[in-house]
Design brief:
With 198 residues, the protein is mainly alpha-helical. It is built from 6 helices and no strands.
């Protein structure tokens, strides 16, 4: 089961990183160094964190830490290279830090939480990459940047609060349900009498 999870998560990581890199290459002249640093930091940090978490079940902490740092640094540096040395440095440091944090998270997680945490982090990565693509396309002039009005900001804030409370509550209820002590089994009572040997 762990192999299937790892293959699925790594496929998503590779696909999102590749799409982001190709998008950056196509419009890099229209993007600022700040946007490049953001892209490098996002890819470096999330790939390192997710890699360390997913490999936590199979690898020792030392090997997991090195592998997660390699993946995070590789992704961060690759996204920073089309921009500036500052973006490369940002991606490199994000990969180092996230690789270590991912390995720590992966080693501390119980096996039951490996799947939910892997998918939760991957979902966050997908959302972050979608927002990054939107920002890059707006900065390049491909998408029209619209100023959020008061009503949209209010709706977005309320929705964010509701989703946060709902997710928090689901995790609390799920963990309390899982941690409930099992009812002790009643001892088996023998109805027959044992004869004592004299």
């Amino acid at each position: 089961m762990n192999i299937i999870i790892q293959v699925l998560v790594f496929s998503i990581l590779i696909a999102l990183t590749a799409v982001t890199y190709l998008t950056v290459l196509s419009i890099r002249q229209k993007l600022s160094c700040t946007t490049g640093m953001m892209a490098a930091m996002l890819i470096g940090s999330m790939t390192g964190l997710i890699t360390g978490t997913v490999l936590g079940a199979d690898q020792s902490f030392s090997i997991n830490c090195m592998l997660a740092m390699i993946v995070g640094v590789g992704g961060g540096v690759m996204l920073g290279m089309p921009f500036h040395a500052m973006a490369v440095l940002d991606g490199l440091m994000a990969g180092v830090m996230s690789g270590m944090m991912g390995a720590m998270l992966g080693s501390m997680l119980s096996p039951d939480f490996l799947l939910p945490m892997s998918f939760f982090l991957t979902l966050l990565f997908v959302i972050a990459v979608l927002l990054l693509h939107r920002i890059m396309k707006q900065e390049a002039g491909i998408l029209q940047e619209t100023e959020p009005n008061r009503e949209k900001m209010k709706t977005g804030s309320i929705l964010t609060v509701c989703v946060t409370i709902a997710l928090f509550s689901l995790v609390i209820m799920g963990s309390s349900y899982k941690d409930q002590p099992k009812a002790p089994e009643e001892p088996h009572v023998h109805t027959g009498h044992h004869k004592m040997s004299e």
